Amino acid sequence: MDGQDEAHYLEMMISGGWTSGLTLAEDPFAGEESPYIELTNDLLFHMVFTKNDKALKDLLSVLLGIPAAEIRTIEILNPMQYNDSIQTKMTILDLKVHLNHDSFILVEVQVRDFRFWTNRTLIYACRQIDEQTKGKEAYEKLQPVIQISIMKHPLFPNRRKFYTEYRIQDDAGQVLTDKMRFYVLDLSAVDSADEADREQGLVQWAQAFNARDWNAFKEIDRNGIREAANTMAMIMMNPTERQLLWDRQLALMDYNTEMISARMTGMEEGMEKGRAESRIEIARRMKSKGISNDVIAQITELPENEITKL
């Protein structure tokens, strides 16, 4: 988008009919040509919720199931450093916050089916626990660590559940400790949400993360989500930040392409190996029946010297 297009886009935003109470009535829903990237882009996710505390407060309120009024302070522990070079392929973009000075919340968006996700998540949570053990009163002042993962696929293939809380407890449900908890929001299972999930606001936020364009965002009537949409639109108006997002999208696309290519190569190699092993087995059986090596070679396409060794 060049300068003229940006000016036109800004004009559309200001003249739009949708406002959120801000000084500038940003309207990302005005015009079909408005640039759009899904909120599940982990870099965009990090940008939006480090820039807009109202959106972050509403999201945390919904994910943790606590009234927004109970969220007094949110300290972001890993703000994005835009003056540094962002390694778009490798940067860890989870959001780490200190909530009310009494608990640590780790939020991540995981769109890929990551094989060792459970182990990685456990390590991240344990690191945050370990960071609290430096003082003399670590035992008595240990604060809870809550890991929240927003995923686009089921955590367990045979168990589809929209929102799940995992605790450390025994078979009878006796909780060993509340100092470490894990929450998983499965965006692919929003159709299995119950009324409690809807009342809590989980379905609306899931719809926001699943939205493929501004029109889908427009249908969601929630102030926190409108705040997020406003910030998304303003980020896309910033050439530097917009370029970072495009770079991140391309990096993710390249990664996915590489993974698909690697899987296809592995499948082809496996099939070729299977075909070779099948030819050897056929040759072995034919040889046991007294069939000559030259005939076996013609049928199996194996070299005669290999057939001789069988």
Radius of gyration: 27 Å
| Major sheet | 6 strands, mixed
Stretches where pLDDT is under 50 for at least 5 consecutive residues are: 1-26
Helical proportion, percent range: 40-55%
Look at the helices and sheets and give the structural class. Answer: alpha/beta
Strand order of the largest sheet: 1-2-3-4-6-5
Shape: elongated
| Number of continuous helical runs | 12
Number of strand elements: 6
Helix and strand run: HHHEEEHHEEEHHHHHHH
Q: What's the structural domain tally?
A: 2
Write down the overall mean pLDDT. 79
Report strand %: 5-15%
Distance between the termini: 67 Å
Model description:
The chain is 49% helix and 14% strand. It folds into two domains: 235 residues, no CATH class; 38 residues, no CATH class. The longest helix has 50 residues. The chain has twelve helices and six strands. Strands 1-2-3-4-6-5 form a six-stranded mixed β-sheet, sandwiched between helices.
Short structural summary:
The chain has twelve helices and six strands. The chain is α/β, with parallel strands linked by helices and 310 residues long. It has a six-stranded mixed sheet, with helices on both faces.
